[in-house]
Amino acid sequence: MSTNPSQDQFFDYLFIGLGAGNSLMLLSLLKNQCLTGKKVAIIESDEKKLNDKTYCFWAHETDDLVEDLKAIISYQYTHIELPKGRLQSIQHQPYCYIRSIDFYNYTLQICEQEQFPIYRIALEGIYPANDIYQVSTNAATSLYAQTIFDSRPPIPQQLDKKEIFINQSFYGYHIKTEQAVFDTHVFEMMNFDVDQAAYTQFIYVLPFSTTEALVELTRFGKEKINMDYARKTLDEHILKNYGTYQIIADEVGNIPMTTYQQASATHKGVIHTGARANLIKPSTGYGFKNMYVFAQAISKKIATNQLKELHQFKLPTKSRFQFYDRLLLIILNFWPHQGKSIFSSLFKHQKIKTIFDFLDEKTKLQQEIKIFATLPLVPFLKALYLYAKQEHLLRYLLLIVLSITYLSLNAIDAHIAAIFSYATVIAGLLFLGIPHGAVDHLLLINKKSSLLIFILKYLSIVFVYFVGWHFFPTLSLCCFLLFSSFHFGEAELKESNNMNHLAVSPLSSFLLGFFILLTIIFSHYSASAQIISFISPGIKQFLFPLYWKFFALLIVLASCLYISMAGYFKEGKLPIALLLILCLGMLLPLELAFGFYFIFQHSYNAWQHLQLGLAIQPKGLYMQALPYTLGAILVGVVFYFFNATSILQLSHYAGLFFIFLACISLPHFVLMHLFYKQRFQ
Ligand SMILES: Cc1cc2nc3c(=O)[nH]c(=O)nc-3n(C[C@H](O)[C@H](O)[C@H](O)COP(=O)(O)OP(=O)(O)OC[C@H]3O[C@@H](n4cnc5c(N)ncnc54)[C@H](O)[C@@H]3O)c2cc1C
To answer: Is 16 in the pocket of ligand 1 (CB under 6 A)?
Structure first.
């Protein structure tokens, strides 16, 4: 591959595609004078000679978007028609209509004026070549560029089970009626007075004159709308509502509605735009306005030379809106017929201004609560349940229920509460805690030794460490704190970056895990001191002098702060679940606080990571874990009886249990670290 392009082949900016996303980007870059003196070219495989879409959006008269595109906005509807012929004014934010052909011609004309060449070829690949990029095309031409704006359609992916993908498919007629039946100021967004066919289906009407309009049948659902069915339904609707008519043109289209987020470009000089940059709102299919805002943000950054991580730039969003989108898509995917009642309630109870603000993600939480309060409850509860299941959140619900049960029992009878807490921890360990460590034999990629040798080596490490506890308890305890901190932190960070193939820093892993452990230990000051004094009286003196109680509180607070910050800086979101477990743990006895963290957070997450990394279904993984789980229980029982009478005289059950856990954890920690490194980096 040549890396010395000729002057003709090299461009400062190369636009791949000249649809909505890149046209808006190009206009915005010109407006901000980013293209002055630069070499610019466009690769667009289509002639762009057809009016294949309509671009509609609501906007204030004074918005930059309206100002910038005034020349090609054909219509501005100032009223919306609601069920039963009710009209509502949207004068504050008219609904603007742009014919796609007008937009294409407008941009093409500007390209001509600016003398930006347009290559009518299709891009095939982008390859880094030193500090620039080479693009290969379906023609012999190879072009090179410093910066590329890539608006090719999103790459189809094999979607994860929890992702939703449905279609917003539509078929419409541009009609001319005999009678003057339309008002050119009024459009209809969602008329549900049509057959639903077990989907969410509605009619969308954009008048162009008193006798002309675009009348479209839209379906939200997994299956796209069938043309013959759409023609028949449209015909019935038009005849019933507007009388006899003539078809001038038709429009067919499909907008994917998905929770799936395309990954950003991996090359620094390649910036995704349009649908490829996830700018289409999943629950509505509207994206034009977002693309404009995105183009403005990117061009301002380029104008002010803020180029760092530009290819990773995302429009700031509030995560709760992604959550709402997801709930709605779950409903439309699993119970599509429910859409009619949801949207009808929305339009019945809310002002259009509120709905527009909500769809623009500009409402406040109180407003959103009011909106949801007027929507049918059952489908949202069902969607919430599925969401919680998909996101593995039901465990936290169980955790809260168990905590409340413990606290209630404790208020009645402390003895029964103690039995309950131990029974809960033992059950959790049997079903999750131990099994997550009982598939270690599957983790080695280079299986040079036989299973028997592996087990012998594994048990030898456990045994040597156990002997170490006997002779050097303080050192063994310190080792345990070090490696378990690293192990817990590593699993947390892997979970928080969604198991993306990103390296996590060992220091961050250690610090996060260490602070988690300190939070649990110091928020149960006396109980921890008691257990540690059985293991290592020396370290007890050091860690738990009585006057340090005050500092312990500080350490707990600092730990919580660190954990929140670690999560915040890593992914831009707080590790709420982790904080919930640690805070809830402060109300519970030590065995529950640690047990709940270990079972519901650490082991549960690791179990999911193992399923993903080993590509084994939960049932299969359980079967693989079963013999070793039973083996670990056997070792535990032998260990307990051996030590109950041994010279160690560790009469304290929790201390014994702690040592047992530490011993079987050492080889597990090493293997899990290698597993994360080999499969997720
Ligand atoms: C029928 C329809 C109607 C819509 N109406 C609205 C609406 O009213 N309001 C709204 O907000 N959103 C609407 N959307 C959603 C969204 O705004 C549009 O899909 C928008 O066009 C997406 O912009 P884009 O740049 O990502 O893709 P496009 O506009 O499709 O542009 C991509 C361009 O890349 C070119 N291309 C693709 N592959 C290659 C290649 N390999 N080499 C070179 N060129 C290539 C294509 O020819 C195309 O011109 C609509 C979508 C559809 C499908």
So the answer is: yes
Q: d(Cα 219, Cα 255) in Å, to the nearest integer? A: 10
Q: Name the residue with tokens 């104008």.
A: 303
Dihedral angle over CA of 123, 125, 127, 133, nearest 10: 10
Measured from the CB, is residue 20 less than 6 Å from ligand 1? yes
Ligand 1: distance of its center to the CA of 13 in Å?
20
Closest Cα partner for 81 from 204, 217, 233? 204
The model's pLDDT over 75-111, given as tens digits with 9 standing for 90+, comes to 999 999 998 889 999 999 999 999 999 999 999 999 9
Alpha-carbon 152 to chain mean position: 22
Burial bucket for residue 292 (CB in 10 Å: 0-12, 13-18, 19+): buried
pTM: 0.86
CA distance 367 to 324: 13
Find out whether 134 and 1 touch, Cβ atoms under 8 Å: yes
d(CA 95, CA 549): 63
**Euclidean distance between CA atoms 137 and 592, whole angstroms:** 61
Residue found by looking up tokens 């890149």 in the block: 22
CA distances from 130 to 3, 38, 134, 206 (A): 7, 20, 10, 51
Rg (CA), the chain: 31
Q: Mean pLDDT, to the nearest integer, of 169-192? A: 97
Task: Determine the distance separating the centroid of ligand 1 and the alpha carbon of 19, expressed in angstroms.
Answer: 5
